[in-house]
Amino acid sequence: MEHLLKMILIYTTLLFPSVCCNLREWSNMDLEDRDPPANTIEILTFLCYLIPAIILILIFLSCLFHRCLECILTKIAGTEDASIDFV
Prior knowledge:
The chain has two helices and no strands. It is an all-alpha fold. Helix 1 runs antiparallel to helix 2 (38-77). It starts with a helix and ends in a 10-residue tail after the last helix.
């Protein structure tokens, strides 16, 4: 289940650049043709690139710290074969 959740997060982050391209094309339109102000478009475009980066970094760190936490807890338990269930 955890693997499925990570795959869904990765695939959704891959969809963000297409949304950003649409926002960028929309921001190149004439000012009269678009509804929100230019600053809103720039902020949304920035967030479209920032959010996937944050998600991927969090996924990487969760994988990294999951292994480290497992090592630390087995050393604290004092056994090499300590069974620790991670959810």
